[in-house]
Amino acid sequence: MISKEDYLSGQVLLIDKPLNWTSFQVVNKLRWEIRQAFNIKKIKVGHAGTLDPLATGLLVICTGKMTKQIDTFQGQVKEYTGTFVIGSTTPSYDLETEINDTFPTDHITETLIYNTTKQFIGDIQQYPPVFSALKKDGKRLYEFARAGEHVDIKPRTVNISEFEITKIDTSTAPSTGAIHIEFRVVCSKGTYIRSLANDFGKALDSGAHLSALRRTKIGDFDVANATSIESFIENLSL
Predict the structure, then answer these.
(1) pLDDT for 148 beyond 80
(2) pLDDT tens, 157-190?
(3) CB-based contact 183:165 (threshold 8 Å)
(4) Is the pLDDT reported for residue 134 higher than 70?
């Protein structure tokens, strides 16, 4: 049982973030619940690495003095699993926005898909999505995007140490042209899997967007050891 003093002195909490929650909402919810449970006026709570609302999986939450370790945790290698849809793109590179273009896929073979992953192993140059929380001139990139304003984004170097295709589903290709690819990626801090989806589609001489994403690991932390928000709240009241 974690006590009031434990939370104040510092805890690392592993939370399995649900779909459609922002990382900020999770932090606010946990902070409020901890304060209510122990009648605490003020406590520091933060997360070690944002997950998009449409992503699920591991959020490392720090309380009290452990918030000083957030930068260390953020810098650790991360693992993701998810699905790319080959044959169409969206402005946000995921399902936050509607499909804006479609591309042929009849030239794409399983061999081509597997071989294309090799282009993305190691240090690569990647453009962050324009629909992201990165700041330029004091403004979030998604603010420019939603206002329909063009903004120049510079590429940055990220590292992908593992890129594995775990399943290729071509069952909808004859009717829709879409190929669904399930993957596992191990990458450095700052890697956008949405951008990887977009770039992977281009490398296949087609287009692609991200339809599902789950963060499974941050350093030695594993989502298998994480708890849901509901379970965390229930355990607080025990």
Answers:
(1) no
(2) 999 999 999 999 998 888 888 999 999 999 999 9
(3) yes
(4) no
Tell me the Cα Rg of the chain.
20
SS (H, E, C) 104-132: CCCCCCHHHHHHHHHHHCEEEEECCCCCC
* Distance between CA atoms of residues 186 and 222, nearest Å: 13
Q: What is the mean pLDDT of residues 67-71?
A: 96
CA gap 169, 202 in Å, rounded: 19
CA distance 191 to 157: 9
Catalytic residues: 52
pLDDT of residue 133: 60
pLDDT digits (tens, 9 = 90+) for 31-46: 999 999 999 999 999 9
Handedness of CA 210, 115, 223, 63 (dihedral sign): negative
φ, ψ (nearest 5 deg) of residue 132: -145, 170
